[in-house]
Amino acid sequence: SVCEGGDLFAWGQNDHGQLGVGSPTVPISQPQLVKILKGIPLAHIATGGAHSIVVSLSGAVYSWGKNEFGQLGLGDTEDRYCPSYVSALEHWKTVFLACGADHTAVLSKEGLVCTFGAGGAGQLGHNSTRNELVPRVVAELWGARVSQVACGSQHTLVYVPFLDKVYSFGCGEEGQLRAERKPHQLIPLPINSPVNPGKSCHGNDQVHNLYMVLPGRCLTCNLDNILMHFTQNSYLNGIATLKDEDVDEWISNSSPQHWEHIKKNIRLIFSSEACINGSFLAKRDKHFKTSKEVSGVDMSEVLQFYRKISKKPEVFQEV
Asked: Any idea where the RCC1-like domain is (predicted)?
């Protein structure tokens, strides 16, 4: 769970270190702060059978927990007890994540999908049953501009808005995929029914919430489980970040009742390293160049902000 202040808390089973709080332990019943990620502005989190993965607002991906099949994307099969940076996804422009029992799928801003981890049931979509230890692009989906991805235990679903189709691959033994298909489907194939007949969605600036476009039931294919898949790993509510309109309000508004609200907002954002870092990211995708050497923060934006609030001493002092 990520709080508005940007801190990540975890609890529950920890036999593979999937909570990211250190060495494997007995189940933890109380929320524990994942200290290593403190200060990183998180955008999404996904959890698998015994592994976890997060992505920051700058597209930096961290994974931890069970890694028997390479589901952490780190190039080996060693478990990780604390979040580890997935360098193979640097500059990938990751915007969304999904986890199966032992595999992971990642969606880029451009609509590309890469998968890694267990591939024994074809759930990686690479026309094989090999495991993949590092992220690999699903070639069959190249150019499809996928807008959403979801994982079941041993299968994967993606939505292509331009074609208004859900594509599926992986194990269908438990009815996840269409009944007439072979149990192991090794490449993405469309479910032969449009998600929203006569209407297609375009653009990929945000992941579409398929709850709005998927019918509850379809006579030609079973979409009940698909609806559940696409809504279970939704966007976080979002950590608190600074917006231009907020600053304008701070400067222009002087009524006492609004000042208390403004102070609360300022304290929330400026008491959190994660919220500060997320507030001054470089524009026009430049923040996706973030690495260990490049912060992704636009210092000119920081200076401009301070120049702006200096016009109102009480705001400047509160910040």
From this structure: 3-192
Q: Rounded to whole angstroms, what are the CA distances from 59 to 1, 43, 222?
A: 19, 8, 34
Angle at 70 between CA 115 and CA 39, to 5 degrees: 80
84 and 193 housed in the same domain: yes
The number of folded domains in the chain is 2
Question: What is the torsional sign of CA 6, 7, 12, 18?
Answer: positive
Q: Please report whether residue 238 resides in a domain.
A: no
CA–CA dist 171, 57 (Å, integer): 32
Q: Report the candidate in 88, 85, 49 with the shortest Cα–Cα distance to residue 65.
A: 49
Tens digit of each residue's pLDDT (9 = 90 or more) over 97-132: 999 999 999 999 999 999 999 999 999 999 999 999
Identify the sign of the CA torsion 26, 31, 37, 42: positive
Distance in angstroms (rounded) separating the CA atoms of residues 44 and 95 = 8
Q: Please identify, among 203, 231, 259, the residue that sits at the C-terminal boundary of a domain.
A: 231
Looking at the fold, whether 126 and 191 belong to one and the same domain comes out as yes
3-state class percentages of the chain: helix first, strand second, coil last, to nearest 5: 25, 25, 50
Asked if 62 contacts 84 with a C-beta cutoff of 8 angstroms, the reply is: yes
Which residue type is seen at 288?
A: F
Taking only the tens place, the pLDDT of each residue in 131-145 is 999 999 999 999 889
Kindly report whether the global pTM for this prediction surpasses the value 0.70. Answer: yes
Whether 239 maps to a domain, the answer reads no
Burial of 246 by CB count in 10 Å (0-12 exposed, 13-18 middle, 19+ buried)?
middle
Going from the C-alpha of 164 to that of each of 18, 74, 198, 200, the distances in angstroms are 35, 33, 9, 5
Query: Contact, 27 vs 12, CB < 8 A?
Result: yes
Displacement of CA 55 from its chain's centroid (Å): 5
Residue 102 domain-assigned (yes or no)? yes
CATH code at position 201: 2.130.10.30
